Amino acid sequence: MAKAQPGALSFEFFPPKTSQGEAKLEAVQAELAVLQPAYVSVTYGAGGSTQAGTFRTVAALAGHGHEVASHFSCMGATPESVRQQLQQLLDLGVTRLVALRGDLPSGYGSAGRFAHAADLVRFVRTEFGRAFHVEVAAYPEVHPQAMGARADLEAFAAKVKAGADGAITQYFFNSDAYFRFVDDAFALGVEVPVVPGIMPITNSSQLLRFSDACGAEVPRWIRRRLLDFGDDTASIRAFGLDVVTDLCDQLCTAGVPGLHFYTMNQSAPVLAIGQRLGWVRPA
Ligand code: FAD
Q: What is the pTM (predicted TM-score) of this model?
């Protein structure tokens, strides 16, 4: 039976720090182009990367003909610096943003004028009108610093009401959390597309550590199997491919508006899922 089609695909990359990393990303974006992404996005300030690195990578990907979204985090920023950087993006031809609060390293001063992502979205709309298509982050399993699940949902709805055009979720492995989140958000008046963020599983220790930090639940049955595989990377990848392919299939069958892949600057895991689900023919 034919598999459901995925809707709009988007691929997230981080800015490479070395020329070797840049060459790898060149190859990765070209390999993923067979899946015809609606857009690609570049993270901002995550993992020690700089704003200059983000803008350089955004420009490079735009030069390959991609529609590019720049992630943009606002914590600790001033209105002047945000205005100037957004203008820089417009000058690069970038009209898509993933608007985020971001995280302030501990002991690093105060949040400043932009305490929450909603403040940034409001600022973008006030200063730049509809010049940008704005996505915001959503947390089906609740943001780790949230006062509570309801407060987090309401904060999400407030970001959308401030002017977001859509949302991308933190990754999850339990689709019920996503479906319930979308229903609850809709009940609060959120009608914009909420695109699931998908994290391919390619290793265990890094995934488990990162998931604990960002509040994404790795279900016990997945966690236990990953731990059993130890250093057996081939088994981890094969199991991860099964699990994440099933998740994507389930989401596509339910008619999600798209899928946003956290590629970690790798093409093979996403291409393998695409091949399994018939989005791309095996070479
Ligand atoms: P917000 O929406 O501001 O929410 C942050 C917290 O504040 C939540 O707990 C929320 O419940 C609470 N809150 C919101 N409004 C209020 C209010 N009015 N009163 C009280 N509490 C409130 N990080 C990076 O550094 N770079 C990236 O490129 C990056 N890209 C990401 C992409 C996606 C799709 C996702 C899901 C996350 C990304 N992150 C990135 C991580 C993100 O920066 C962190 O999760 C950050 O801690 C929260 O950012 P936010 O925009 O979701 O914040």
A: 0.97
